[in-house]
Specification:
The structure holds 2 protein chains of 2 kinds. Chain A is about 70% helix and about 0% strand. By secondary structure, chain A is mostly helical. Chain A has one domain. The radius of gyration of chain A is 19 Å and the shape is globular. Chain B is built from 5 helices and 2 strands. The radius of gyration of chain B is 19 Å and the shape is elongated. Classes of the chains: A mainly alpha, B mainly alpha. At the A-B interface, helix 1, helix 2, helix 3, helix 4 and helix 5 of A face helix 1, helix 3, strand 2, helix 4 and helix 5 of B.
């Protein structure tokens, strides 16, 4: 934050940042809405995921696996695994927000990559709570509006394969993955995850090879890494 | 479908709530942090690979692979998310139209 930020400017800065992040997240929301339609979800189910699950990577995983013909169980498990990082975000946020017990139940839904990044980047500011709530609510509104637009829009265009939308799914996952590849260990993990999933595809039901990749990651994470440090990252993605 | 949507949501909500509620020491361990960092990476890589290279239960290389190559180049150039995704779709669709 800049030096001129008096308490009033500080609040303004936080609100401007929150709105900007919300708008940026809208791009993901549009893609998610469109890809969920492609996977066969109704507009209601698609928005249900955006409003209730409200954590992007988990939602993309769910529709990706369902769309590929995987079982609901595999889709749910993958979404849960991807949501584990939010528990760690909550851990970092709890002492900063110091929430009364009841408000925690509401705040929990807004624990995201974005709200965490915005909040922990200003740990001593008086605006720390404002940063959390403003970012969380801004992202929630933009994410859900964009989801509706994407879902309705995708229905209007006909066969999604003619527009390469099936290729867009892979690109979306790669874009979510990219900022997390920060050192050798993370790159090895990504490479192994992809190879294991493809190798198991002919012999396991759809969706299960993806879960096997998660098991590989747990095995790799079990012991102190020999190469590089693992640093938890927060990225701009809900 | 709806029960799956609701179950997914219940699980992800409880994970968020757990982070805010459980005693700090219970989760703040190096191993837990490593797992929480690496599992999403392996899952996202696996999901990307399967979406691009799998049809039914077969591993295939088709127009989607060209879309993925475009996405990787765009990400290297720090292109915005929408450019990456829409560009990958356009590359795949263009290639299909040509072949």
């Amino acid at each position: 934050m800049s030096e001129r930020s008096t308490s009033r400017d500080g609040r303004r800065e936080v609100l401007v940042d929150a709105v900007s992040i919300g708008i940026a997240v809208g791009a993901y929301g549009l893609s998610f809405g469109a890809l969920a339609s492609l996977a066969g979800l109704t507009v209601g189910q698609t928005v249900g995921l955006s409003a209730l699950t409200f954590t992007g990577a988990s939602q993309f995983a769910f529709v990706g696996i369902v769309g590929a013909g995987g079982s609901y169980l595999a889709a749910i498990l993958a979404a849960w695994f991807l949501g584990v990082r939010n528990a760690l975000y909550g851990l970092s946020l709890a002492p900063l927000l110091n929430l009364p017990r009841r408000r925690r139940f509401v705040a929990a839904q807004f624990v995201l990559d974005e709200s965490t990044a915005m909040t922990i980047s200003r740990p001593t500011a008086p605006t720390v709570r404002l940063a959390f709530w403003a970012t969380g609510i801004s992202v929630f509104v933009c994410w859900n509006l964009a989801t509706v637009l994407g879902a309705v829009g995708a229905r209007a265009i006909g066969d999604p394969r003619d527009f390469g939308l099936d290729a867009a799914v892979g690109a979306a996952f790669l874009a979510l993955l990219w900022p997390r590849l920060q050192d050798r260990l993370t790159r090895i993990t990504a490479g192994l995850g992809a190879v294991v999933a493809l190798a198991l595809t002919p012999v396991l039901p759809p969706g299960v090879p993806v879960l096997a990749a998660a098991a590989v990651a747990i095995a790799l994470a079990w012991r102190e890494p020999r190469w590089g440090q693992v640093t938890p990252t927060t990225t701009v993605e809900p | 479908m709806w029960p799956a949507v609701l179950l997914t949501s219940a699980g992800t909500y409880l994970l968020k709530l757990a982070g805010l509620s459980v005693p700090h020491d219970a989760l703040d361990r190096p191993r837990v942090r490593r797992i929480a960092t690496l599992v999403p990476i392996a899952l996202l890589a696996a999901l990307a690979a399967v979406q691009v290279f799998v049809t039914g239960r077969h591993v295939v290389v088709d127009a989607r692979a060209a879309g993925l190559v475009f996405a990787a180049i765009a990400l290297t150039l720090r292109a915005p998310f929408l450019v990456v995704v829409v560009g990958a779709a356009a590359v795949a669709a263009g290639l299909r139209a040509l072949t």
